[in-house]
Amino acid sequence: MTGFSAYEQPDGEPPSRRGRKPASIGEQVGPSHRAWLEPVRSRLFASGLTLDDLVGRSGYSKARISELLRGKGYYPGWEITYSVVRALDIPVWPLRRLWTAAAREAAKDTAWIESRIHAVQPLPPERPPLAHQGFTEAMRHPYTAYARAFLQSDRRAHWVVSEACDILWLGWDDAVAGPNVPRHAWRLLRSRVLLRAHLHPAGHPDLRPAAFQTVDQSRIDDLTARFARIGRLADFFDAVARLPQNQLDVTVLRYLCGIHPDAIPDVVGLSTAITQSMDHHARGALEGTYHRHDNRE
Q1: 7 pLDDT band (50/70/90 cuts)?
Q2: What pLDDT band is residue 261 in, cutting at 50, 70 and 90?
Q3: SS3 label, residue 199
Q4: Residue 179 contacts by C-beta under 8 Å, 6 or more apart in sequence?
Q5: Do residues 58 and 87 lie in contact, with contact meaning Cβ atoms separated by under 8 Å?
Q6: Looking at residue 285, what is its pLDDT?
Q7: In the chain, what's the furthest Cα-to-Cα distance?
Q8: Span 184-200, average pLDDT
Q9: What one-character DSSP code corresponds to residue 211?
Q10: Do 7 and 22 form a contact (C-beta atoms < 8 A)?
Q11: Which of 54, 57, 56 is nearest to 68 (CA)?
Q12: What DSSP state is assigned to residue 205?
């Protein structure tokens, strides 16, 4: 099986030790595919199982399992994905939703997706842990508002938040074993949002389209004046997007999303003192930009 092993190392030596990390995921694998493939690989590595163990539990060949774990070849059907998921004792419902989204990303049509799902026995009811359910319900509003600020779409914002909640469910045990569940979850949500946000040519997120959504400019009747105002706001939002990441998060949540300052620490998983410091430094950095644009009016 040389050349097929998911555990093959860069020097080509086929490892035999238990629990060694799989070879890297292919560069062609899209973000939705990675959303479920990375948790599966993490669970496999944490389990200490070998590829042979997984082959024995799933009933599929080493070559096919290896391709699945690396994202090589054709997008995997639900049958083989389900067999691996069950072998690793991973929650099936969130994984299937992520698999379905990735199938669409891979240009699979609805008929193909449904036929693959129907080839597997119906799934029994499955609910997330109560703590996960309570946490995600509490965070859904601020998470969605944050996603909307970057994605400029209600539909995309809701979809990305749901994706993040499903990924969080897959790794919930690890999250609660860590020191800070809100911080872990926030980093996950932020990574999924920024992965799909439009980027400025300079490489930072592009918040300039948010200028078209402000109430301030919408109240200007004169179109020339409105477009001039939008241009100034776009420059200001671009300055916001250039802030350091934590300052950017606090600024977007408070001033673009309207989240109350007292609620922001629980959303981002940082202390009140740190979030207040981030807000202070961000306002100081933006003050000059704001006054420059304000004075031009």
Answers
A1: very low
A2: very high
A3: strand
A4: none
A5: yes
A6: 87
A7: 72
A8: 94
A9: G
A10: yes
A11: 54
A12: B
Plot region of 102 (φ>0 → left; ψ -120 to 50 → alpha; else → beta): alpha
- Is a pLDDT exceeding 60 seen at residue 228? no
Q: Rounded to whole angstroms, how far apart are CA atoms 114 and 265?
A: 42
Contacts of range 60-69, beta carbons closer than 8 Å, 24 or more positions apart? 60/84, 62/1, 62/4, 62/5, 63/1, 63/4, 65/6, 66/1, 66/4, 66/5, 66/6, 67/4, 69/6, 69/22, 69/23, 69/37, 69/40, 69/41, 69/44
Q: Return the closest-CA partner of residue 20 out of 48, 56, 39.
A: 48
pLDDT at 226 over 50: no
Residue 287 above 50 pLDDT?
yes
Separation CA 289–CA 294 (nearest Å): 8
Q: Kindly give the interhelix angle for 92-105 and 78-87, rounded to the nearest 10 degrees.
A: 150
**pTM of structure:** 0.83
Q: What are the CA-CA distances from residue 99 to residues 30, 31, 73, 80, 91 (Å)?
A: 12, 11, 16, 12, 12
- Higher per-residue confidence, 240 vs 32: 32
Round to whole Å and give the CA distance between 190 and 174. 18
Nearest alpha carbon to residue 116 among 76, 86, 163, 170: 76
> What amino acid is encoded at 35 in this protein?
A
